[in-house]
Design a protein that fits this description.
heterodimer, A: about 325 residues, alpha/beta, Rossmann fold, 7-stranded mixed beta sheet, globular, B: about 325 residues, about 45% helix
């Protein structure tokens, strides 16, 4: 076991993946010499060289498109999109090419591209630098979409994403980059890794299920601790994978608790929570004691720093939703 | 070059020269002060400083009318000041306050004021060039003689949007000027890693529009190139691309460790080719402007920035209800 920040855990995961497979390479803006603006690729160019850790022009569409070409020719490129908002210039290649090309080849073509996106707010940045664009990508068939929430998962999930033969959109909670935890980096531990696309109960409980992913997992765990003082037993699930979704684990939990609250930073309207709520309603209808409730951002571009604490779901808003669940 | 400087200096009336100096000095003081204030932790978010590049914003905006438009970048304070945005309102905006020019909703990277033709700073590199094509097309279609200028960095010049815009503007013969502020680094990455060709201006050739390179530290060189391009655009002669070679004095953003720089790079630029230094040397040496007159402006500018910071610190924060306004025209 070693103590790592989330950023360092991804760094170690990338390093391990590059050591394991010479076809893995990294490309992105300032990822090489600088080591990335969040230092996630720190030291990798020094150790693996400029041909495997590539500083690119500011050209997100070109970065992803090039990665597609590399993947067509047998490589496993990992693209870093510097900030969430910068993925929109790359959305063209991601949605029109990356997500579609395997289908055109009737499955013969594999595109093992990972697009890493630091996402979410909480660092005082504004629009383009604090966004949660996951629903655009979960809506796009052909992409796998995952979101890590803690260092231990991040270390494992980035390696699994790289090994995956399909394109993976990999969300990293940027405000949690500096949070530390124990990570088992021993090669033997790999045998016990859960599948990339499994959810996990991170806090068991019996009264209500709270679903979260990425940066909101910790917020929900704190809410669950607070709710315990009020005598409420909150089960928190870290979804980890948004597409495909671990429907079985979610269904099992909600059928047990009869109540469900979904929490994400992205605006509630047409957010990923809408898909979750619809699915849970379909699969748990006769078990539900209350409507599935959602907690998320408001329908506004991501606000500037002085307002972001009001925008971001916090402990109070999660607890309020939990309370409302019990009002039915 | 010094001769040109000299001649250009003489071609400008004294009051104009003092006005241009005041713009550059205001930008410089604004940025130097932000550099200090940011270090205290009181300024939220990201701040990208324009110090070192003042001659470009000042040189272009000096040739624009109030009803002309500019589109800016993430490094937009200089453009905003030069186009006439209220300095105190800008400072309050950067502090995230309700009294800010965008009511605290934009911050440093999204300052906009359409009343003075400032379409906005922009958090997306390459976000601005297509916008000025639209503004330019409107001017052409309705027969006004307005001009639109987009500022882009060397990094932004590699975005598809920039190259698409060059083509659109050339095909439609738009009254637009594309300015590339080549400040030496795309964020932290030097040109040899990200830029094909020595001059971005050469890309203009391929699209059939004039492209020139000027020294971005030299106000008079920028002013002359800007004047020619803007007059051509206004007269229906179509778009131009002007690349200004320059060096930014601070990091890509405040807090940037700048490990990518050569030793002494900034110190050398500040000592030998600083735009304010060059401007002062040429105007004072030519006997047009007195040193005391420049120092008087310095003093006034300093007082303005002091006031702007003091007022910004005292100003109220936006209230939570502000989150849900202005997203749509009507609800």
């Amino acid at each position: 076991m070693t103590t790592l920040t989330l950023a360092k855990a991804i760094n170690e995961g990338l390093r391990r993946a590059m050591e394991d497979d010479p076809k893995v390479l990294i490309m992105g803006e300032d990822v090489g010499k600088l080591g990335g603006v969040f230092r996630v690729t720190d030291g990798l160019q020094k150790d693996f060289g400029e041909l495997r850790v590539i500083d690119t022009p500011l050209a997100e569409s070109g970065i992803v498109g090039t990665a597609i070409g590399l993947a067509l020719r047998g490589y496993r490129p990992v693209c870093e999109i510097q900030f969430d908002g910068f993925v929109f210039p790359a959305a063209d290649q991601i949605i029109t090419q990356l997500a579609k090309m395997p289908l055109r080849s009737l499955g013969a073509l594999k595109l093992p591209v990972v697009v890493r996106i630091p996402c979410g707010g909480g660092i005082g940045a504004v629009e383009h630098h604090s966004e949660s664009p996951e629903a655009y990508f979960t809506h796009t068939a052909g992409l796998r979409v995952v979101a890590c929430s803690n260092p231990a998962d991040a270390y494992v999930m980035i390696q699994q994403a790289i090994r995956c033969d399909d394109p993976v959109i990999f969300f990293e909670p940027k405000r949690r980059y500096w949070e530390k935890a124990e990570v088992d980096t021993s090669p033997e531990a790999a045998a016990g890794w859960p599948d990339l696309h499994t959810a996990r109960v991170v806090r068991p409980g019996g009264d209500v299920t709270v679903l979260a992913y990425g940066p909101m997992v910790r917020t929900c765990l704190e809410a669950a601790t607070a709710a315990e003082e009020d005598g409420r037993s909150v089960e928190v699930i870290d979804l980890r994978s948004l597409n495909p979704l671990d429907t079985a684990l979610v269904t099992d939990s909600v059928r047990r608790t009869g109540r469900c609250v979904i929490v994400h930073e992205a605006p509630v309207y047409s957010g990923f929570g809408a898909e979750l709520a619809a699915r849970i309603t379909e699969s748990c209808f006769y078990h539900l004691e209350a409507p599935v409730l959602r907690v998320g951002g408001f329908s506004t571009p991501y606000p500037p720093s002085k307002l972001e604490e009001h925008y971001l779901p916090d402990l109070d808003r999660v607890l309020d939703a939990v309370d409302r669940c019990f009002a039915y | 070059m010094r001769t040109d400087l000299h001649v250009s200096g003489r071609a400008l009336a004294k009051e104009d020269l003092l006005r241009h100096y005041r713009v550059m000095r205001t930008i410089r003081e604004f940025e130097e002060r932000l550099h200090l204030e940011f270090a205290t932790g009181e300024i939220p978010g990201f701040v990208h400083l324009y110090a070192g590049e003042e001659a470009i914003a000042a040189g272009f905006c000096a040739n624009l009318r109030d009803d002309d438009y500019i589109a800016s970048t993430h490094r937009g304070h200089g453009h905003a000041i030069a186009k006439g945005c209220d300095v105190k309102g800008m400072m309050a905006e950067i502090y995230g306050k309700a009294t800010g020019i965008c009511h605290g909703k934009g911050g440093s990277m999204h300052i906009a004021d359409l009343a003075v033709g400032m379409l906005g700073a922009n958090g997306i590199v390459g976000g601005g060039p297509p916008l000025v094509c639209g503004v330019g097309l409107k001017a052409r279609v309705t027969g006004t003689d307005q001009v639109a200028v987009s500022f882009t960095g060397d990094g932004g010049s590699n975005q598809g949007t920039f190259l698409e815009s060059l083509n659109l503007a050339a095909v439609w013969r738009l009254p637009v000027v594309f300015v590339v502020e080549n400040n030496g680094y795309a964020e932290s990455t030097a040109p040899r890693f990200h830029q094909s060709g020595i001059d971005v201006a050469k890309r203009a050739d391929g699209f059939g529009l004039p492209g020139v390179v000027v020294d971005g530290h030299d106000f008079f060189a920028v002013y002359e190139a800007a004047r020619e391009a803007i007059e051509r655009a206004r007269a229906g002669g179509g778009p131009s691309l002007i690349e200004c070679k320059v060096l930014r004095y601070y990091g890509h953003f405040e807090g940037d460790q700048q490990s990518y720089r050569e030793p002494g790079e900034v110190e050398n630029a500040r000592a030998t080719k600083d735009c304010l230094l060059l401007f002062e040397r040429s105007t004072v040496n030519a006997g047009i402007v007195g040193e005391d007159e420049l120092r008087a402006i310095d003093k006034q500018v300093l007082a303005l920035i002091d006031e702007a910071v003091a007022e910004a610190k005292q100003a109220p924060d936006p209230v939570p209800a502000d989150l849900l306004t202005d997203v749509y025209v009507s609800y």
